């Protein structure tokens, strides 16, 4: 399986996982000039931007640590663009989550970072 297909498979797995935990899908693979949002979901009244990461093993920090400051900034800019395209959502509370796959283990990190730290 090539890298793109593998990424799409993990994003689908993450979406199913989150739906089982009460989130509702809004959009997937939303691309902007300065970044991409893997998943956009609703968790009650909260708009959730989800980054999906996969690593075969934890070398170099693993999947969760691969969402560093630069990646956070790109996600924040993409989220701002998404909100600009959907002004009716602009007043909703938002958060950034990470769903990390490491081997066969899945970890959901709610509120993984905040805009003031990105």
UniProtKB/TrEMBL annotation:
This is UPF0102 protein IFO71_04755. It comes from the Bacteria. InterPro entries: Restrct_endonuc-II-like, tRNA_endonuc-like_dom_sf, UPF0102_YraN-like. Belongs to the UPF0102 family. It holds the Pfam family UPF0102. PANTHER family: UPF0102 PROTEIN YRAN. GO terms for molecular function: nucleic acid binding.
């Amino acid at each position: 399986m090539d890298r793109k297909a593998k990424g799409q498979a993990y994003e689908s797995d993450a979406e199913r996982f989150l739906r089982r935990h009460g989130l509702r899908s809004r959009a997937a693979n939303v691309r902007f000039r300065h970044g991409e949002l893997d998943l956009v979901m609703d968790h009650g009244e909260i708009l959730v931007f989800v980054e999906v990461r996969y690593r075969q093993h934890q070398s170099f920090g693993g999947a969760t640590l691969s969402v560093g400051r630069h990646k956070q900034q790109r996600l924040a800019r993409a989220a701002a663009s998404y909100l600009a395209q959907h002004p009716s959502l602009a007043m909703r509370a938002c958060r950034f989550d990470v769903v990390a796959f490491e081997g066969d283990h899945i970890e959901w990190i709610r509120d993984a970072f905040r805009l003031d730290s990105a």
